[in-house]
Design a protein that fits this description.
By secondary structure, the protein is α/β, with parallel strands linked by helices. It contains twelve helices and eleven strands. It has two domains: 3-201, inorganic pyrophosphatase (n-terminal core) (Alpha-Beta Complex), CATH 3.90.1640.10; 207-321, Diaminopimelate Epimerase, Chain A, domain 1. Helix 2 (32-47) packs antiparallel against helix 5. Bound molecules: adenosine monophosphate and manganese (II) ion (2 copies).
Length: 322
């Protein structure tokens, strides 16, 4: 860890330790790392008798595959989130706009501690604990718990484990370092329900979603000359199969298996008219650069952005960037 990062971690711990109450928030449409890293600190603080509220911006719905995380029942509706918290902590959000409707609270917070691992992070906090080398925001939270002298328990360990396996693709991505296995080993010591958690997170879908996935795979387009593969999930497809967009979170992991393509993309047509773009690279291309140039962000191998253009216009931008 660099000295700057070490120092930020120590300052963050001092501010949290001195606060009568902390307000925690993670990014919009939270994934396993966003929820897991936030809930881990939330549960650890509460177990120590500290006051903590945790939330994320509207739409205030947790995708069903995250039901194995612990502490979801202790989340606060964003409408009840403090409007000007003395100490606010954000998780896995690379920029303030990723906090959606809670960005105003972050703006008004006296101390804003940003816990993250996105290389594209805009450092929008008063204290920025950002480690682009960390496999997950949960890894940074584990270090913070140490600095706070807060012990792990079964719930905290479950949430950190979920953060870790979601962001490392179950110990497969480049980010899977010896530190990751060290942490996984420590967490596994807390009697985790590993098979149940793995099944709900990755290995189980509703039959109707599998059919939708079949259609999305059927519609995949391979642009050989660019090494680019893409598909679309439209509102019409969701309606016909009776699915919600959050079920399609893992579709990109199928699309990116295409051997002939270095870059994979899923374009999700949202009900507000925007297109949510997921990008993955398995080669030389830095998809974070493409996402950042389009107002989004992420990591070198996994990134995303929200587009106001239609599908064709959005694809044209990506092709131009490639
Ligand atoms: P996803 O494709 O949604 O799984 O996202 C992959 C990565 O890109 C994650 O690290 C996200 O934090 C990041 N990302 C996705 N969408 C956006 C966005 N609209 N703005 C900034 N970062 C994003
Ligand atoms: Mn995330
Ligand atoms: Mn993350």
């Amino acid at each position: 860890m660099s000295t700057g990062l070490d120092e930020a971690l120590t300052r963050a711990a001092a501010v949290i330790a001195a606060a009568p109450e902390v307000a925690l928030a993670c990014h919009v449409t939270p994934d396993g790392d966003a929820l897991g890293s936030m809930l881990a600190l939330h549960l650890a603080l509460r177990a120590a008798g500290r006051r903590s509220v945790a939330s994320f911006p509207e739409p205030f719905v947790v995708a069903d595959h995250y039901r194995g995380l612990i502490g979801l029942d202790t989340l606060t509706d964003p409408a009840a989130f403090p409007s000007a918290p003395a100490v606010m902590v954000t998780f896995d959000a690379g920029s303030i706009d990723r906090l959606g409707g809670l960005a105003a609270s972050a703006d008004a917070a006296t101390e804003l501690i940003v816990i993250d691992h996105h290389v594209s992070n805009t450092r929008f906090g008063t204290i920025n604990v950002i480690d682009p080398d960390a496999a997950a925001s949960g890894v940074v939270v584990r270090r913070l718990l140490d600095a706070l002298d807060l012990p792990l328990d079964h719930g905290v360990a479950t949430d950190l484990y979920a953060a870790l396996i979601c962001d490392t693709g179950r110990f497969q991505y480049e980010s899977t370092t010896p530190e990751v296995f060290g942490l996984a080993g420590e967490l596994a010591g807390f009697d985790l329900e590993i098979p149940t958690l793995s099944r709900s997170l990755f290995e189980e879908h509703r039959f109707s979603y599998l059919k939708l996935m079949g259609e999305a795979v059927e519609r995949m387009v391979l642009e050989r000359e660019r090494g680019f593969v893409w598909t679309v999930v439209s509102q019409d497809m969701l309606a016909r199969h009776g699915c919600t967009m959050d079920e399609a979170e893992g579709l990109i992991d199928i699309v990116r298996r295409t051997r002939e393509a270095g870059v994979a993309c899923v374009l999700k047509e949202d009900d507000d008219g925007t297109v949510k773009v997921s990008l993955r690279s398995v080669g030389e291309v830095d998809v974070c650069a493409i996402a950042t140039a389009n107002g989004g962000g992420g990591h070198r191998f996994a990134a995303g952005f929200t587009s106001r253009d239609d599908i064709d216009g959005t694809l044209a931008r990506i092709r131009a960037a490639l």
